[in-house]
Specification:
37% helix; Nucleotide-binding universal stress protein, UspA family; Rossmann fold; globular; 259 residues; ten-stranded mixed β-sheet; Universal_stress_UspA; UspA
């Protein structure tokens, strides 16, 4: 993991995401942060660049990662996706204000990007003001993991911060509990790809998958939630699109979407 892109609009939410990204980089000289402001053309580029200088001044010290600033004009998601290809971005870190209960159908800028970007996105809630990364909860559905590539990103994060990965599967009450053939396959995959950082796999009963995940995070004081959207059945109540959007809006801890 070398290049991290941070969409930045000078809001407190984006400043919080930058602060998290700096700590996430953890004195690694191989990591470069790119701060990106996307304008509709009404703002002067010179003014934005001056504002950027003020923002990054506090981070221009040897213990912090190298930070580059970029200003682009255009639509949000297409601009980011294009820049991802140009700069070979490995990860997007983006802040979100989230949403209150009852706002499940709204689509925020962050939730739309998570759906459209074809690379890992780490979403930082605006209310999350600390940095701690020793335990990660990976939420899996009941499907067999067929695309194992996203696990490399999870391994990179775990190895960098020496974080243990707890795996969680939420099942409805009427479903049989325990290990199926697909569960056993997933277990072998997790052990192989996550190496010594894989802790254990828990199965919890809850009719509401999102609520089950969030309850587990709170109960066990997890530091980060990771999801692999393609492991949730497209036709199920918690389809990959809906569940990902809900967790983007409601998670109180950083959410790593592995795509």
């Amino acid at each position: 993991m070398k290049n991290i892109l941070i969409p930045f609009d000078f809001s407190e939410v984006s400043k919080n995401a930058l602060e998290y990204a700096v700590r996430f980089a953890d004195h690694d000289p191989a990591i470069t942060l790119f701060l990106l402001n996307i304008t509709d053309g009404n703002c002067k580029t010179g003014k934005i660049e001056e504002d950027f200088k003020k923002i990054i001044k506090k981070y221009q010290k040897p213990q912090f990662p190298e930070i580059h600033t970029l200003v682009r004009e255009g639509e949000f998601a297409p601009s980011i996706i294009q820049l991802q290809k140009e700069l070979k971005i490995d990860l997007i870190i983006m802040g979100t204000r989230g949403a209150q209960t009852g706002e499940e159908n709204i689509a925020t800028t962050t939730s739309r990007l998570v759906q459209e970007a074809d690379l890992p996105v780490l979403v930082i809630p605006g209310t999350y003001r600390k940095f701690r990364l020793s335990t990660i909860i990976l939420s899996l559905g009941n499907e067999k993991i067929t695309d194992r590539t996203p696990l490399y990103t999870l391994l990179d994060v775990s190895r960098k911060h020496k974080a243990q990965v707890h795996v969680l599967t939420i099942q409805h009450h009427e479903m049989a509990m325990g290990y199926t053939e697909d569960d056993e396959s997933n277990e072998a995959t997790l052990n192989y790809f996550l190496e010594m950082f894989y802790s254990h796999h828990s199965f919890e009963e809850n009719e509401d998958i999102e609520k089950g995940i969030l309850n587990y995070i709170e109960k066990h004081d997890m530091d980060m939630l990771a999801i692999m959207p393609r492991t949730h059945l497209p036709g199920s109540e918690a389809s990959e699109g809906r569940l990902t959007r809900l967790l983007t809006l409601h998670s109180n801890v950083p959410l790593l979407v592995l795509d």
